[in-house]
Amino acid sequence: MITLISIPRPGVGLTDDAVAYLEGAGFTPEEWAKRHDDADGMWRGDYCGCPDDRCVGNHHAVDADCYCLISLVEEAMQERRAES
Ligand SMILES: [Zn+2]
Ligand SMILES: [Zn+2]
């Protein structure tokens, strides 16, 4: 699903897979950055989509799906549902 061996998209700092996953859940990369305290919309987390910039290789293997992103997106969607 999220292949972390792919290269971060220039200017975004996320892989195409991470961007596609976020967009599939209805979040733009900018919204995702702002949600994680990057008020200017610039992503400073890891390229897999986890706000911890040392996620790849620490939270999970380089070639594994990022479960941080999956569960954070799940949480964000639940929050958004609760708001509306
Ligand atoms: Zn992580
Ligand atoms: Zn990750």
From TrEMBL:
The name this protein goes by in its record: Uncharacterized protein
Source organism (scientific name): Gulosibacter macacae
